[in-house]
Amino acid sequence: MISNEQLFRILIDEGFSKGDITVFDKYSSPDFVEHQYGFFPPDAEGVKKAILGLHKAFPDFSMVIEGLVVHNDQVWGRMTARGTQMGQFGPVPPTGRKMEITVIDIMRFKDGKLVEHWGVPDRFALMEQLGIKPPPRFVMKLMNLIH
Questions:
Q1: Is residue 110 pLDDT above 90, yes or no?
Q2: Residue 144: is its pLDDT beyond 70?
Q3: For residues 103 and 119, is the Cβ–Cβ distance under 8 A?
């Protein structure tokens, strides 16, 4: 049987980085639940749709695993995602800009299958690098109002 760490690596390296969405068919439970904001539907089909969209917008998209923690049935990973926006990304037309962001993923496995996923990409960094968010000074002022 494949370990949870190996499954995590396959899903990130083959699925997200290389765009091979079939790994989610092979390694996801029929009861799989996606918790990352914006993935719709919140299941394996939503994840596959998101991966295809990422690779369409960023043809050179890749994720590098920088660190992993395995605890019981969960694997926590810190990755660096990189790519060049050459296609439409949501409402943003191609910019030709490069992006490099940190992504935190948590995957829970049961009986050799992915049953839950939480993804936390640094969306502020992504938006800034693509030129679609207010400058950091504005964000810091906003954060000071919240605290």
A1: yes
A2: no
A3: yes
